[in-house]
């Protein structure tokens, strides 16, 4: 499997990172300087409002919009130790059990019944938020989800700082192994390494999947880097009062290399010298043996054009996505959910119709997972696959979708096929979709994709004119509409307009205007003295 990471920053306003696998675009990340990118940043904020009805607090953390903090994201030290206490950041008792699987909630709950609660535990029953926080309280928070529309960013007091191989989780108080590392031999080796490193009391670490097969010295270097970073965060937290930014996540180039680079990535190409130097400095510091895989692209043809990515990216915004063999999927994004419909089109196999549907659905499942990553779609997603009667085929499509979603970094949950043949799923939404980042709603149709016909607008104009029969103060009316609407009225409604003027004694003029919305409609009215009056 040949992978390449292409980084395009030739335009200073935008950074684009594409991950290619065997010549196929598998992942795309886009970030613009004009957009706030707060996820991962850490702030010292102040509680400005408590809402017991939704068990949440609103936090001023200095970015202009208050953040949303739910009780489920309030770390236990805020009610066990009476609030934020930076002096205890390194003083919690060390774990007695050593290393456990990160995210293994059942194991944590079983263990919680055998020992006293400690810093970092998430109790099953949370106290009411009004008993935990008060207006004016200071909290250390991390942004876990960007704001959408009028909603502010989502915050959490469970701080996590990713390194290359480890994630520092200060209140965890123990070390864990990522659940995605399922090989027991690898887990045992990583446990021994982490126990030998002896992390300081009161801080926790989770070994990332990238930590597999890493040496003790590599893990130690990553741990030292994270501990120094955390100490600087604690110093800043003690020094300044809220609201203040404490830590900002790295730029997208460093983040992507840190999180996405694996041994399978044979080459990283960057088309801008300054960005290349930053990435080189990071690689030499964190992963020196892979630094030679980084290259500065100096070709005359733009990097993404050279690899045919501009055309591929253009297709990402289309509603219909063609599939290999003649089928297609249609993606419709609404306010509440994403609907994906699978069509067989001209796809045919030499076997039965049931087998034909099954093979088409397998191809579609893989493409659906790819499109969800590329478009960064989130929330509730409903997949309408081609109907299949056989249970084994349904299970096969579900398995194919699960396998295709494994490489997705966002959290997903996929349900079994419903009685209606739909596969429902959810995907973590961290930031607005790529479509919303690049496009805005059409000012003409306001995002609906449709406008009224000229006939519909003509009927609406004539219906509105009927209101004038109840007015005694109108002497002259001027109507401005789109050219096509004006042509329709003046030609096809000429008789009705003549009758209107005879009956009401109102002088009527219909004016067509080019370059306006098809639904453009403006009335201007005057009385017998020439004074402007309001109509309708």
Please characterize this protein's 3D structure.
The protein has 536 residues and is α+β, with helices and mostly antiparallel strands. It folds into four domains: 3-36 and 253-310, eRF1 domain 2 (Nucleotidyltransferase, domain 5), CATH 3.30.420.60; 42-248, Nucleic acid-binding proteins (OB fold (Dihydrolipoamide Acetyltransferase, E2P), Beta Barrel); 320-438, no CATH class; 454-533, Ribonuclease E, catalytic domain (Hypothetical Protein Ychn, Chain: A, 3-Layer(aba) Sandwich). Helix 10 runs parallel beside helix 11 and helix 13 (454-465) packs across helix 14. The protein is globular and about 100 Å long.
> What do we call the CATH topology of the largest domain?
OB fold (Dihydrolipoamide Acetyltransferase, E2P)
Name given to the CATH architecture of the largest domain:
Beta Barrel
Give the fraction of residues assigned to helices.
25-40%
Number of alpha- plus pi-helical segments:
15
Question: What is the C-alpha radius of gyration, as a whole number of Å?
Answer: 30 Å
Number of domains: 4
Poorly predicted segments: 89-123
Give a short summary of the structure.
With 536 residues, the chain is an alpha+beta fold. Helices cover 31% and strands 25% of the residues.
